[in-house]
Fold this protein.
Amino acid sequence: MGELLYQGKVKQVWSTEDPDVLEFRYTDQISVYDQIIPSLIPRKGESLNRTTCHWFNLVEAEGVCDTHLLEMSAPDRCLARRFEVIREPGAITQDMENVFVPLEVICRHHLAGSGWQRYAKGQVGAEEFGFEPGTQIEEGCKLPEPYLEVSTKFESFDRLLDRKEALEISNLTEAEFDSILEAALKIDAIIEREAGKRGLIHVDGKKEFALGPRRKPVLVDSFGTLDEDRWWDAETYANGQIVSLSKEFVREHYIAIGHHRALYDARADGTEEPPIPALPQAMIDKTVELYASMYERLTGVEF
C-alpha cells in the first residue's frame, strides 16, 4: 500500500514496495497565498500529472538531462526515482550521489510577478534583467535573454540567493551549479518552442534538480504546469493586452472579498491567520475549465 512520506498543498509523496521508487499523487486541492482552499477542483490533479509527465518525456527524448520519472502509473499519479533529502544547509558532501539539490531555479522570459515588483520598487535597475542601464521598461516586457534566479527550498518562505550563498547551501562545485543552470535553460527552450506552436507565451517557471550517478543533473518534482509556471495568450499579447492563463483570477477573487488583506495583515502582526473561505461554485467551474483547456493547449492532446 505504501506510506505517506510528504503532504504538500496539492501533492502527496508515497513510498512503494521498491525502496528506490516513490509515487507522486496529485490531488484536486488548490492553494493560494500558501493556504489550501477548502474546495476541490475536479480532475485538477490529473491535469497537473499528465502535463508534467508530458514535459518529462520530452526532456528525456531530447537528451537534455535525466529525469526522476519512471512511468505515469495512473491519470493523477506517477512513479519516480527516489533521492535522498539532506535538510541541513551545506551538509551534502561533494562525493554524494542520488541526492536532492536544495535549490529552486527560476527562469524568467518576461518581466512579471516578483521580478517586476522588485524593479517597480526601485530595488533593481533595468540592467539587472539584461537591458542597457537607464532603460525604462514596462511590466510584461520580453527580456533580452532568459533571466535565471535561484532560491532556497528548506526555509519557511522562498528567498532569492546570490551565487555564493547558493553554492554554500548546496555545496555544489562551480561546474555542477552551472550544469544545472544550463539544463534549466535547455528545458525552457523546449517549453517555449512547444507552447509557442499552440499560441502560448511561457512567461516564467521554476525547476528542481537532484544529483544522480556521477553527480549529473536529474530533473525532479513537477514543472511546466499551471501551478509552477506562468502563461499568457500570445495573440492578445501581440495586440498589447496581457491575458493570464493561470489561477490568477482565483487570487483576484480573494483580493476582492478582502481575504488577502486580512491574511497579510495577520502575518505582519504575528496574529492568527484567518481561514480561507471556500470558492463559489461558479469559480470552481471556471477553474475546472482552465486546467482542462490548458492541458490541451500545453500538450496538444485531448483531455
Residues 80 and 297 are 25 Å apart (CA to CA).
